[in-house]
Write a structure and sequence with these properties.
By secondary structure, the protein is of the alpha/beta class. Helices cover 43% and strands 14% of the residues. It has 9 helices and 7 strands; from the N terminus they run H-H-E-H-E-H-E-E-H-E-H-H-H-H-E-E. It is globular, with a radius of gyration of 18 Å.
């Protein structure tokens, strides 16, 4: 497929086959909380009645499961056949969801046919992120919104925070190039010995009235261990990972034909929405 790293695609197929994010794995309350964090700036009120949109890189279908309840139709697209199979299982019975095994740079839909689109945590794993954004833009009607989440380059964090990330990056580079069984074991060990303890300390500090927003992994203080396990696998088992500053994301969106760019000022960073000119 065009603009797809085969190793990364295979890895995500393995991830979503392992962490299916089904209704018995991720409880409804936590799913709703996660959804709201990513979609808090999405302009639902601007969508037409029975809007039809695109989930570009649907993975397990965890976001599509909520979105499909609010719109007329949703196209769920993923480059991994295994991920798409998981999404189909999770979304079984939803007649308004249509599945496509394709890359984001080869969307099999007519140009200017969609009322909205979103892509969360996907495009920073592609060889050419800008190309993918341009292809999504080509499928949107004029005035349609696009929500994107891309890994941030810690441009709103202090130097010491970025230093911690550089240390973790050494671990990611090593683990992501290991055999599949070792990748899984290492990521789960990190979830248990790093994510969980720090998250629970943040939970305690927050209850005592302390601010925890500057602590790495603070966002997991209200998350289940299942989510930590999933995200640790996602973070440390992917060979291709890009990070962008807010200004870089703004430029990519504007170059693709989006305007009125709005960024969320809360984690996860960076979430942005733009409207096609």
């Amino acid at each position: 497929m065009k603009n797809v790293d085969a190793t990364v695609s295979e890895g995500f197929g393995r991830e979503w086959s392992t962490f299916t994010q089904g209704e018995f794995d991720l409880n409804a309350k936590e799913r709703a909380q996660l959804f709201d964090e990513y979609f808090r700036i999405f302009p639902w009120q601007d969508l037409p009645k029975d809007a039809v949109g695109l989930d570009a890189g649907c993975g397990s279908g965890r976001w599509a499961a909520v979105t499909a309840q609010r719109v007329g139709g949703l196209h769920a697209l993923d480059a991994s056949a295994n991920a798409l199979a998981t999404a189909k299982a999770n979304l079984a019975g939803r007649a308004n969801v249509f599945f496509h095994h394709s890359s984001v740079s080869e969307i099999p839909l007519p140009d200017e046919s969609l009322d909205f689109a979103y892509s969360l945590g996907v495009l920073h794993h592609l060889p050419d992120t800008s190309d993918a954004i341009r292809h999504i833009a080509s499928k949107l009607k004029h005035g349609a919104p696009f929500l994107v989440y891309l890994y941030y380059a810690f441009d709103n964090r202090p130097t010491w925070f970025r230093a911690v990330w550089r240390i973790s990056e050494v671990a990611r580079w090593t683990i992501s190039r290991s055999p599949a069984s070792l990748k899984y074991a290492a990521s789960q060990l990190i979830a248990a010995t790093v994510y969980w303890p720090i998250a629970r300390v943040c939970t305690l500090l927050a209850r005592l009235g302390f601010r925890t927003s500057s602590i790495p992994l603070e966002a997991y203080k209200d998350r289940s261990f299942y989510t930590m396990r999933t995200d640790a696998y996602d973070r440390f088992c992917t060979t291709l990972e890009k990070r962008f500053t807010r200004s870089q994301i703004d430029k990519m969106l504007r170059d693709a034909g989006f305007e009125r760019i709005v960024f969320s000022d809360q984690v996860p960073f960076w979430c942005a929405v733009g409207w096609k000119r």
